Amino acid sequence: MSALSGFILVLLGFGFLIFIHELGHFLAAKWAGIRADGFAIGMGPCAVSYRKGVGFCIGSADAKVVRMHGKRPIEMSDAERERRGLGETEYSLRMLPVGGYVRMLGQEDGNPGATSDDARSFTRAPHLRRGVVILAGIAANLALAIVLFLVAFLVGVRFPAPMVGFVAPDGRAAVAEPVPAPGSSAPVGLKAGDRIVSIDGEPVATFVDVRVAAAMAKPDATLRIEVERGDERIAYSVKPVRDERIGLLSIGIDPARSATITDVRSSRADIDRLLGSIRTVDGRSLAEAGLTAGSRIVSVSGVESTTFASIEDAVKAAGEAPVDIAWVATDGSQGSARIETVPQYETMLSPTPSGEPRADSGIAGITALARVLTVAEGSPNAATLREGDVFLRVNLEDGPSGSAVRAAFRAAPSSRIPVVVLRDGKETALDIRTDSEGRAGVYLESAFDLPIVARTIDTVLSKEGTRDSAAKALALMPRSRLISVDGAPIASLRDLRIALGAKARAHTGDAPLSVRVGYRDPAEAAAPAEAVMTLAAEDIASLRSLGHDFPIPETVFDPEFTVLEAGGNPLTAIAMGFRQTVVMVEQVFLTIDRLGRGSVGVEQLQGPVGILHTGTQVADEGFMYILFFLALISVNLAVVNALPIPIADGGLFMFLIYERIAGKPPSIGFQNAAATAGIVLVAGLFLLTFYNDLARIFG
Question: Does the predicted model carry a pTM greater than 0.90?
Answer without folding.
Answer: no
